Amino acid sequence: MKVKFEKLIFTFILLFTINLCQSQMVLNGQKVKVPKTQIELVLGSKDRIPIKKLRDQNRSLNTCTNVSNFVPNYDSDMPIAAQNAFNYALDILEDIFVSDVNITLDINWEDIPGNAIGTAGSSFWRANFSFFPEFGKWYPEALTNIYNGSQFNSSADIEVNLDSSTNWYFGTNGNPAWNQVDLVTVIIHEVSHGLGFAGTVFSNGTPSSTTIGWSNLPNIFDPFVEDGNGVQTMTLPNNTQTLLDALTSDDLFFNGIYTNGSNGGAPPQLKSDNPYVQGSSYSHLDDGFSNEALRSFIVTGDAIHDLDILGVSMMRDLGWEVCNDSCPAEMTIANNNELEGNQSFQSAFESDGDIESLQNIQGGIDVIYDSKTSVELLIGFEVNANSNFEATIDGCGNN
Ligand SMILES: [Zn+2]
């Protein structure tokens, strides 16, 4: 993956930027509504047993240590204890995400109105540079930097806003009181949004206000979202009841090959219940994933100090290289009899993944996975229609 993009010449064909810090941004003279993701607060109780999922202490024994470098720029109003908690959360993320380019963050400590205790997003989304793997798709700034091979511009890649009036727990041992919000948990959640875990949907709850895509382009998140019948949400028409119905159908899923592989082979459900809540719906796991960092809310007293395998897998599907230790165990994918005729090189079966490595399938035949929609067979490999085969890959798509 690294080789593929570093070798490209950086010709800037089309330059769009969207600033997620603002609710609207002028894009080529046209105003574009940009969603904010947020995490909402749920008050636990003294009697409830809190969820604790702490950092794996064995991680330091593994090879994945500081495979990226997050560089925070803290609001001067932010308490030192809060900054220390933030640093602790970034240490965890630095053992997961692989980047040769520093990932920079601006952190604002402010009074956020309403139930949201934190919001975050990529500071910029860019599309159609030649160094991107695909045209017609928005990429968050941290990935832009990686594909570019260096920091694209000097602004922070990610903006995080934290509510200064929340009853935070700044400790890093995962022991908030029943009525405290564990800051480390929220940071891991919010920074993940900033790394690209956020779709382009916007709605104020009426059909006419409901859109997906920015300037008619999806971002890296959108193509993975589909309903139970496999209909991609991004294929539905803007400003329609149809789109709003889909977003509130309680029937949207994240269909990615790593993700499915880490979720028992099935796409995990996304938050898509009724009513639609801007910033919460669509861009989070369903509420039922009670111990996952990427659900839409946090319960006081809980501490979730890891993206864990499902979260990491979704980020991997979005295009992030992740360190092996954070990946799912070995997965198997099969062609499901989708082969048509004898094929020697081109697509053999849909994978819906972005895997770039040589692997071995049953019988010792190599295949190469290198596109979002197909698995290509190596030259010289022929297979008959309707023949079954399976490919076994490790959770990071590596050999
Ligand atoms: Zn969120």
What is the share of helical residues? 10-25%
Structural class: alpha/beta
> DSSP strand (E) fraction?
15-25%
Low-confidence stretches: 1-33, 332-394
The mean pLDDT is 77
Total of helices:
7
How many strands?
22
Strand order of the largest sheet: 5-6-10-7-3-15
* N-to-C span: 13 Å
What does the largest sheet look like? 6 strands, mixed
Radius of gyration in whole Å, from Cα?
21 Å
Briefly, what is this?
The chain is α/β, with parallel strands linked by helices. It contains seven helices and 22 strands. β20 (365-369) and β21 (375-377) form a beta hairpin.
Question: What report would you give on this structure?
Answer:
The protein is globular, with a radius of gyration of 21 Å. It has 2 domains: 324 residues, no CATH class; 64 residues. It is α/β, with parallel strands linked by helices. Helix 2 packs across helix 4. Helices cover 16% and strands 22% of the residues. The protein has a 6-stranded mixed beta sheet with strand order 5-6-10-7-3-15, with helices on one face. The protein has a 6-stranded antiparallel beta sheet with strand order 17-22-19-20-21-18. It has a two-stranded antiparallel sheet with strand order 1-2. It starts with a helix and ends in a 6-residue tail after the last strand. The site of zinc ion has 7 residues, from strand 3 and helix 4.
